[in-house]
Amino acid sequence: MKNVADFNFAGKKVLIRVDFNVPLNDTFAITDDTRMRAAIPTIRKILNDRGACILMSHLGRPKEGPTEKYSLKHLVAHLSHLLGGISVKFASDCMGETAQKAATDLQQGEVLLLENLRFYKQEEKGDPAFAQELAKLGDFYVNDAFGTAHRAHASTAIIADYFAGKKCFGFVMSGELNSIDKVLNNAARPFTAIMGGAKVSDKILILEQLMKKADHIIIGGGMAFTFIKAMGGTIGKSLFEEDRIPNALNILETAKKLGVQIHLPVDAVCADNFANDANIQTCATHAIPDGWMGLDVGPETAKQYAAVIAQSKTILWNGPMGVFEMSNFEHGTKSAAEAVVAATQNGAYSLIGGGDSVAAVNKYGFSEQVSYVSTGGGALLEYIEAGSLPGVDAVNNNPATH
Ligand code: AMP
């Protein structure tokens, strides 16, 4: 898989789909610039080659055309700062004469940011005419927006059709794809998938795919209780999805056939209320009293899970082990995070993906101590489910070779 490092962009106007969907506060200040910082190496590489960068992104979910709140103009000054103070030009429209003129006037070594793509409905509809119009702005296409690669939008996928032989991935995309490949296709064994979070229904397809790949699947979080109940346990008022009982039973049976070990919590930290100051007791997961709910895996489970993680050589983690946002129910998640860090220090490859497990790893300050933290939770999970993504396929279909 080639990326921007494999090409020389001298004299080229490179149209880059970045993910600048950053959170802004009420005065339009950026409150977390992680996504912008992630795109800098790709932009720098092209500028160092003496190419020009035309950046396109969406920001937020504007409903009806141009909206001040969602204007990418709020990002210009900070982008300039991240690029060491070079001036960043801004086109107040990503279409029409404004965009065309700004792109035509752009000189080598310069950066142009286009206004929010989602000010046009055609973007999310994947409209070919809109994509073709965008494509006219540059002579090479780079996709570096992993966070939106699971969408077949005009700028993330459809546009690539107009760049046959003139497209490749940026560093963010190739980093993510290499990491997924390492876990799904070239895993050192044992491979352990840690699955948590609230609902089984969100994770069924992923569990089905991971069973074909993993040696161990650790299940925690609210989703564990549907499994416990399916096996005949009493779970009090813990999270439960009755309609998912057949799925849970099917997963347990298939795992047995495939020789995959599924690990379910044996004990849980239970509360009489969904609150940090609720009354708390540790219960066996199959015997939770009426009126109580499991909000974290218990200490015995945490110990067992840490032991499985310790002997793993590849780890994929999605979803917290409990309600880690509340201090009384964070121990299971923190313990799993510590075990992942220790395994990584022992040579395991660890990929953390999916919003809340990333939030957990960040909360405990471990993001630099795991192998890879995915920037696109939704995209990562969809990749695991489907085995490909529209934004990835679009670049791989007739990519640049020299
Ligand atoms: P997800 O987005 O599916 O990964 O779910 C993450 C959310 O699940 C977090 O906000 C957790 O607080 C919540 N969660 C984890 N374990 C439990 C539990 N045992 N009961 C209720 N919510 C939970």
Key phrases:
Rossmann fold, alpha/beta, binds adenosine monophosphate, elongated, 17 strands, about 400 residues, six-stranded parallel sheet
What is this structure, in a nutshell?
The protein is an alpha/beta fold and 402 residues long.
What does it look like?
It contains 14 helices and 17 strands. With 402 residues, the chain is of the alpha/beta class. It has two domains: 4-174, Phosphoglycerate kinase, N-terminal domain (Rossmann fold); 187-384, Phosphoglycerate kinase, N-terminal domain (Rossmann fold), CATH 3.40.50.1260. The protein has a six-stranded parallel beta sheet, sandwiched between helices. The protein has a six-stranded parallel beta sheet with strand order 10-8-7-15-16-17, with helices on both faces. A three-stranded antiparallel beta sheet has the order 12-11-14. Strand 15 (314-318), helix 11 and strand 16 (349-352) form a beta-alpha-beta unit. Helix 8 packs across helix 9 and helix 10 packs parallel to helix 11 (331-345). The model has no long low-confidence stretch (mean pLDDT 96). The site of adenosine monophosphate has 17 residues, from strand 14 and helix 12.
